[in-house]
Amino acid sequence: MSYSKPKFKASYGNFINGKFVEPLGGDYFDNTSPIDGSHIAKYPRSQKEDVEMAIDAANAAKDNWEKTSVTERAALLNKVADIIDENLEEFATVETCDNGKAIRETLNADVPLSADHWRYFASCIRAEEGSVAELDEHTLSMNIKEPLGVVGQIIPWNFPLLMLSWKLPPALAAGNCVVLKPAEQTPSAATLLMEKIADVFPPGVVNVIHGFGPEAGKPLASSSKIDKVAFTGETTTGQLIMQYASKNLNPVTVELGGKSPNVFFNSVMDEDDAFLDKCIEGAVLFAFNQGEVCTCPSRMLVQEDIYDKFMERVVERTKAIVQSNPYDVNTQVGAQASNDQYEKIQSYLKIGKEEGAKTLCGGEANKDGDLSKGHYIKPTILEGHNKMRVFQEEIFGPVVCVTKFKDEAEALEIANDTLYGLGAGVWTRDAHQLYQIPRAIKAGRVWVNCYHAYPAHAAFGGYKKSGFGRENHLMMLSHYRQNKNMLISYDKNKLGFF
Amino acid sequence: MTRIDITPEALKVLKQLKHQHGELIFHQSGGCCDGSSPMIFEKDDMYLDDSDIHMGDLDGVPFYMNQDQYEYWKHTHLTVDITEGRGSSFSLEIPLGLRFIIHSRLLSKEENTFLNDKS
């Protein structure tokens, strides 16, 4: 079965104060599909004035929104989840068209998971409470959670609807108003969502502005009229965002990617059973979403005594990956999201080979038939050592670099020899390793005998240069709030100082 | 001998951006999404200190990289190039529908001795 390119309007507006509005300067940019380079629609090339209009709308809405009951906010979040579910196929085809990812992923992962994140935060906010402590017989300390006010959110292009659904629900549930800027490569899903939910929230509570980073992203991140910025992207922009926030003394949360190790101990090959089959799949998950995942398991570490046999199976499974038209439900790996990514990945394949990495499979662009019109890279396994640049830098493509290790100590040394600490995978049948190895890896998320699962209710965020903040979990609410401590005296008598 | 170079096509864009924005700097990014690519900003936009290594100048525009990253890159020679594309960072060329990218090659033995052993 195959889907086809969805229909779009000729142009779209920014969503500000509950309405779609044209950019004040009247400029638009063309959005194209990485599947075949075809035109999708025109989106606003917003400037500072557009961003300020959105921020003003959010500020005007915040006092009333803050006062809504958690019952009401939860009901609205649930309503968004229902709307996403009811329009599964439409969201999935738009997302596939915009990003290039395979339709089986958008149908089965991106869109249903997005709905679930809205529901998760709708339930969190109902179950959560502040705290009270009786400090002495006359004194009560009460902690009440209050929203920050207006939050700026800048989201990436690898999971456009899902990243939006990681960021918007906790901010709204906590009682904030939001100005969100989708990545300019993938503006469509956020726009479709605003069309569908235009009447759900009071005007100004959710605002979406489109445009380029230096023209629209920077004015949002540096505005003195917002109270926090949440960002997912790369390190230099992360640093700039923190720098701008420091001028306003605003809090930030940043998620900046990684170079995640996926570690396979020799016990995985003790039996040739369903679990080994799961491990092989776990190794091949580097190609999931074309490798455009912050936690792509892009460094594979395999114990030396099983290396040859294990890699034979991994290479065989990788070669069997179906890379084809992303609208076809049988396609497993689609197109890279943009031409510059496509070029960057090829540049890494080149330097990897120059540094002496051996190509076990793939290693080049896929230009078979119609694929030559889009940005397709063959799933690639490079064999080398951890000091090579391909082992240290996020390639953001379907490329894994594999190396051997001798024992637990060496596995940990290699796993932790990275600037980043977002994700990691550990695969073993050994009960001790199951606990001790994940504890010793310096990363915010360690998958144990699994990988690439992102359920709501499991906290996600980085160590080291991968940033900070913990999304997908109740604890994210505290990143969107401040704590009001009321210290109450029930003592009728004075202190006696004056 | 240099650590970094620029292609004629990229230089053309660089000159255009200098004309538009004045003094500029390059900073090499890492990490997710648009990471692992060079970003270009107005000179005073980014706070730099001793942790940013000055890799060289391209038509008078200094190119920096964070020290930690530099440790893994210093054995390679970099060439800044330009390609059609659309990044989502704050880099100034993005509105032009273009993106700076890096091509790398290993330093020759001679270059490596000159650039990395002298310090």
Automatic annotation (TrEMBL), chain A:
Belongs to the aldehyde dehydrogenase family. Coiled coil: none annotated. GO terms for molecular function: aldehyde dehydrogenase [NAD(P)+] activity. SUPFAM superfamilies: ALDH-like (SSF53720). It comes from the Bacteria. PANTHER family: ALDEHYDE DEHYDROGENASE B-RELATED. The keyword Disulfide bond does not apply. The keyword Oxidoreductase applies. The lineage of its organism: Bacteria, Pseudomonadati, Bacteroidota, Flavobacteriia, Flavobacteriales. The active site is at 255. Residues 27-485 form the Aldehyde dehydrogenase domain. Keywords: Oxidoreductase. InterPro entries: Ald_DH/histidinol_DH, Ald_DH_C, Ald_DH_CS_CYS, Ald_DH_CS_GLU, Ald_DH_N, Aldehyde_DH_dom. This is Aldehyde dehydrogenase. Pfam families: Aldedh.
Automatic annotation (TrEMBL), chain B:
InterPro entries: DUF779. This is DUF779 domain-containing protein.
